[in-house]
Amino acid sequence: MTAPSPRKLIIAIDGPAGAGKSTIASRLARKLGYVNLESGAMYRALALKAILWDESFDDEEALLKMAHDSRIALEPTIGGNRVLLDKSDVSARIRERDVTEAASKVSVHSKVRAWMVARQREMGIGGGVVMEGRDIGTKVFPDADLKIFLEADPVIREQRRLDQQRVKGAPAEAMAAELRERDRRDRTRAASPLAPAPDAVLVDSTHLSEDEVLERIEALVNEKLAATRE
Ligand code: DC
Known about the structure:
Layout: E1 10-14, H1 21-32, E2 35-38, H2 39-52, H3 60-68, E3 72-77, E4 80-85, E5 88-89, H4 97-106, H5 110-124, E6 129-133, H6 136-140, E7 146-151, H7 154-166, H8 172-188, E8 201-204, H9 210-229
Parallel strand pairs: 1-6, 1-7, 2-6, 7-8
Antiparallel strand pairs: 3-4, 4-5
Helix pairs in contact: 1-9, 2-4, 3-5, 7-8
């Protein structure tokens, strides 16, 4: 008799910038044949629209209206999410410094977050998804099958970001200061501050290679999959 095929899980990976979420989420999704969804890319797309439309990052109502009038789509590809804003491919533009900064600012608003959370639920509800962000395990999928909170020492996270950005020639000191400020904003905002869900598994990647992090998470996924077959 063949074993029943396992249910397709919802896997949440949360944590601060530079902890390695995107790489791990995308590698894990590929291994499992799941879809990888980067929720941060949606905040980035909205932030880009605010920049293009010269909208204030502090005007919650204007941002919410803009969100309602926008079409933000994530298309998972081998190399990460292709991000479409009103049908334009903004995948590269949303990674630039001004958008990174703006995304952290537009994401403090609770109404904007509620709109994002609703879209993100629609995208992941069928399972077979690795969704990464800041509030996936706490707000988007509080009943996710597996919740990972990926952390790393701030100095290491800064170094990783610098290594990524050095190619683009960004000044090191300014970059590190911006990362610290975004961290502070993400962790202290009133609406869904970055924090592990009570039932999240904490993984500290400070002294682990990417492969080691992936191995740990895969072991947890395999336990869950085995449990769904019982
Ligand atoms: O993961 P990222 O760097 O692409 O996220 C960009 C910003 O969006 C980040 O500063 C915080 C915000 N964000 C959020 O508040 N909630 C999420 N689920 C994902 C990102």
